[in-house]
Design goal:
Elements lengths: L1 H18 L1 E6 L7 E3 L2 E3 L1 H13 L2 E6 L2 H10 L3 E8 L8 E3 L7 E6 L10 H4 L4 E4 L3 H8 L8 E4 L6 H5 L6 E4 L2 H7 L8 E6 L5 E6 L5 H16 L2 H9 L6
Parallel strand pairs: 1-4, 1-5, 8-9
Antiparallel strand pairs: 2-3, 5-12, 6-12, 7-10, 7-11
Helix pairs in contact: 2-8
């Protein structure tokens, strides 16, 4: 009997240990997530880190290309992924904690072009739109009738499309007003070079997406911790810290 009780205790300890830890994946996506001085940081990184701390869950952060991060969290039953757009296309794939920091997404057009930009998604089908492989905007636009190699051109990451966009090799770039200035600055450009033409806010806000087998109790602890950060002002403090114009 003592032997079985010991084994049972070890099983419960292992389950509890797993419930109190998470592998957390993200991509290079400044100002939300990026590596600086060999440390993964960024607005949503620090927000998730503080959320884990308050929830007393040990979170180990991993920065990988988006598709690798997405695949990792699907394979690991004790994992999470951010900054992940939450909408009907993904709702049943994950459990959700959020929202995290986010900004409205749009399709952008170069001001220097002489032709007329599209005003609707239907009109946008006549142009080439840059999308990242496996990204929610690729999935969303395909659900709206867009097609790869017809009016969608794939890139390995969102930011890889910026230079081709600036050179006129793709017509429309998807970004938010937080992300776009960071991308453009790397090419000695500012937001004055582009105009927003189509609102994509319905695609969804940023969340922490957890594997569906993560215990509900863990999800609830994380959500309660994030709510506390909103209430005590830390959420706003992190936004002010990372959204300064001088930040990389």
């Amino acid at each position: 009997m003592t032997k079985w009780l010991l084994l049972l205790g070890l099983v419960f300890a292992a389950v509890k240990s797993q419930a109190d830890s998470l592998a957390v994946y993200t991509e290079h996506f400044p100002p939300y997530s990026f590596e600086q001085d060999k440390k993964i940081t960024g607005l949503n990184t620090e927000l998730v880190r503080r959320t884990c701390q308050l929830a007393e869950i040990a979170c180990e952060f991993h920065l990988l290309p988006w598709l690798r991060s997405f695949e990792a969290v699907q394979k690991n039953t004790n994992a999470a992924l951010y900054s992940t757009s939450r909408n009907t296309l993904r709702e049943k794939q994950f459990k959700w904690v959020g929202p995290l920091a986010h900004a409205q997404a749009n399709m952008y057009w170069l001001k220097s072009r002489s032709d007329t930009p599209p005003k609707t998604l239907e009109e946008a089908k006549k142009f080439i739109i840059a999308v990242a492989r496996g990204d929610i905007y690729e999935l969303y636009l395909q659900s709206m009738g867009f097609e790869l190699d017809v009016n969608l051109l794939q890139f390995n990451s969102k930011s890889d499309a910026v230079l081709p966009f600036l050179h006129g090799k793709v017509d429309l770039l998807i970004a938010s007003d937080l992300i776009l200035p960071v991308w453009l600055a790397k090419h000695q450009q500012t937001s004055d070079a582009v105009i927003s033409v189509i609102d994509l806010s319905e695609v969804g806000r940023n969340y922490l997406a957890l594997h569906p087998e993560v215990p509900l109790e863990t999800v609830e602890r994380l959500q309660a911790a994030l709510d506390t950060l909103r209430q005590n002002g830390e959420f706003q403090q992190l936004q002010e810290r990372f959204l300064k114009p001088s930040h990389p």
